[in-house]
From TrEMBL:
Name under which the protein is recorded: dTDP-4-dehydrorhamnose reductase
Organism: Pseudooceanicola spongiae
GO biological process terms, semicolon-separated: dTDP-rhamnose biosynthetic process
Name of the gene: rfbD
Involved pathway(s): Carbohydrate biosynthesis; dTDP-L-rhamnose biosynthesis
Cofactor(s) the protein requires to work: Mg(2+)
C-alpha cells in the first residue's frame, strides 16, 4: 500500500516509519504553514492513504503564537482532507484529549462535549472540524500524553531532570492516559488498512491504560529506570504555565475496540520498551 505521511521527525511519524514502508515528508518537503503545499504534495504522490502526524505541539508556546498554530493544526489538515477526497483516498488525522475542558471524573466518549481551554486545544479542534467538513473518507484518532524514545516528551524530560535532581514536584490533579507513540502508529496503520478495504472511518479515542496522574507517570519512570528521585505530588495551581491543562483527560476508548478490535495499551509495558530503547533500564 502506498502511504504518505506528513511529519518525519515527530514521535508518531518516526514510529510509522519504523513499522511500515511509508513516504514521510519533513517540514522542508512540505511546510504545513504554507497554504497549498499539502494539497500539492498529496496530488503529486498519488498514493492510497494519507496520514497526518505533523502538528504544532508546543502547548505553552501556542498561547502566544496562535496564528501559526491555527494554520498548522487547524487549516492544513482540512486542506489535506480535501485533497484526499478529490483523489477518493482515505485520510487519517491525529487529535488530542486537549479538545476537552477536563471537567468531571469520567472517561469521555467521542460523543462528549468538546470545550478546549487553551490555544493548542482550540486549534486542534478546528483541525478536526475542517477534516470532517472536507467530506471524503476520513478518520480522526484522538490520543493523549504521547511518549517514545524519539523526540520530546514527558519521559525524556523526567530522565533529563533526574540527572541533576533527587527530588521533583509534579502535578497530581491532571489525570490521563500516557500513550506510547509505537502503539498509536500501529493503530493508525490498522485503521488505514481497514479504511482502504471499505471501513468508513469516523472519530475515535485511543489512549494508554490505566489512568494516571503526571506524578504517577513520573514515579513509574523513576521506578522502572531505577533512579532514586522523590516525586511529590502538587496541584496544578502550584505549577503555573502559560497554557491551562485539562484536569480530567480520561478518554473512553471502547468504540475503537468495538469497531477495529484495538484495545488500549498498558502504558507501563510501553514505558519498559521505551526505557529499554533509551538504554536506561534498572
Ligand atoms: N505529543 C503529545 O503528547 C500528543 C500529541 N498528539 C497529536 O499527535 C500527533 C503527533 O504528535 P507527536 O508525534 O507527539 O508530534 P511531535 O511534537 O513529536 O512532532 C511534531 C511533528 O510535526 C512537524 N511539524 C511541526 N510544524 C510543522 C510545519 N509547519 N510543517 C511541517 N511539519 C511540521 C514537526 O517537524 P519539525 O521536526 O520540523 O518541527 C514534527 O515532525 C499530533 O497531531 C499531535 O497534536 C495528541 C495527543 C498528545
Ligand atoms: C517538567 C514538569 C512538568 N510538570 C507538569 C506540567 C504539566 O502539567 C505536566 C505535563 O507536562 P508537559 O509539558 O509534558 O505536558 P504537555 O506538553 O501539556 O502535554 C500535552 O501535549 C500535547 C501535545 C497533548 O496533546 C496532550 O495530550 C499532552 O500530552 O507535568 C510538573 O508538574 N513538574 C515538572 O517538573
Ligand atoms: Mg509538551
Amino acid at each position: 500500500m502506498r502511504i504518505l505521511v506528513f511529519g518525519q521527525t515527530g514521535q508518531v511519524a518516526h514510529e510509522l516509519q519504523r513499522q511500515a514502508k511509508v513516504t514521510a515528508l519533513s517540514r522542508a518537503q512540505a511546510d504545513l504553514s504554507v497554504p497549498g503545499v499539502c494539497a500539492e504534495a498529496i496530488a503529486q504522490f498519488d498514493g492510497e492513504l494519507v496520514i497526518n502526524a505533523a502538528a504544532y505541539t508546543a502547548v505553552d508556546r501556542a498561547e502566544s503564537d496562535e496564528a501559526l498554530a491555527q494554520r498548522i493544526n487547524g487549516d492544513a489538515p482540512g486542506e489535506m482532507a480535501r485533497a484526499c477526497a478529490d483523489l477518493g483516498i482515505p485520510f487519517l488525522h491525529v487529535s488530542t484529549d486537549y479538545v476537552f475542558d477536563g471537567s468531571g471524573k469520567r472517561a469521555r466518549a467521542e460523543s462528549g462535549k468538546v470545550n478546549p481551554i487553551n490555544v493548542y486545544g482550540r486549534t486542534k479542534l478546528a483541525g478536526e472540524k475542517a477534516v470532517r467538513k472536507a467530506g471524503g473518507k476520513t478518520a480522526v484518532l484522538r490520543t493523549s500524553w504521547v511518549f517514545s524514545s524519539h523526540g520530546a516528551n514527558f519521559v525524556k524530560t523526567m530522565l533529563r531532570l533526574a540527572e541533576t535532581r533527587s527530588a521533583l514536584t509534579v502535578v497530581d490533579d491532571q489525570i490521563g492516559g500516557p500513550t506510547p507513540a509505537a502503539d498509536i502508529a500501529s493503530a493508525l496503520l490498522s485503521m488505514g488498512r481497514a479504511m482502504a478495504g471499505g471501513h468508513p472511518g469516523g472519530l475515535y479515542h485511543y489512549s494508554g491504560a490505566p489512568a494516571a496522574s503526571w506524578a504517577d507517570f513520573a514515579r513509574e519512570i523513576f521506578a522502572q529506570s531505577g533512579q532514586d528521585v522523590a516525586v511529590t505530588g502538587i496541584p496544578s495551581s502550584d505549577y503555573p504555565t502559560p497554557a491551562a491543562r485539562p484536569l480530567n483527560s480520561r478518554l473512553d476508548c471502547r468504540k475503537l475496540t468495538e469497531d477495529f478490535g484495538i484495545a488500549p495499551p498498558d502504558w507501563r509495558a510501553g514505558l519498559t520498551r521505551v526505557l529499554d530503547e533509551l538504554g536506561v533500564m534498572a
